[in-house]
Amino acid sequence: MFFFGTRCIFDTVCKQSMNFVQKCLHSDNVLVNFVSRHVVFYSRMLSGMSRNVQFYCERFGTSLYDAVTLVKERKLLADEEMIWRACMIKELVMVRDGVCCLSSDEFFRDDVLALIFNFSVT
């Protein structure tokens, strides 16, 4: 089933790629740290890693500094929101399919379908 839409999945892949770059740039391993810094800051378009960073900056309208700065709070909030949305959609699909039911009779099937649609595209 297709919940999040192509754009959201693509954005998630971009952000996961950026998380990898951030971890490399902040690695305790001297070699990994040196090579990743050289690739990102000096050999810009010569590797896939640096092209991913450039693409990320262009797609999300961020500076190179902001993109490579490790911000755990921002990542945590984004991950928690995605998990929350997935749980909401899962529960609504279970209500739609009759596996679960709501405690109130105020919502109709069309309301549940509208909620599923809204949570999956926003």
Descriptive notes:
The chain contains six helices and no strands. By secondary structure, it is mainly α. It has two domains: 70 residues, no CATH class; 52 residues, no CATH class. The longest helix has 25 residues.
Provide a concise account of the structure shown.
Helices cover 73% and strands 0% of the residues. It has 122 residues and is mainly alpha-helical.
Query: Percent of residues in helical segments?
Result: over 70%
On the 0-100 scale, what is the average pLDDT?
76
Along the chain, the helix and strand elements come as HHHHHH
List segments where confidence is low: pLDDT < 50 over at least 5 consecutive residues: 1-6
Protein traits:
122 residues, mainly alpha, 2 domains, 73% helix, 0% strand, elongated
Topology:
Blueprint: H1 5-25, H2 30-41, H3 48-60, H4 64-68, H5 72-96, H6 109-121
Helix pairs in contact: 1-3, 2-3, 5-6
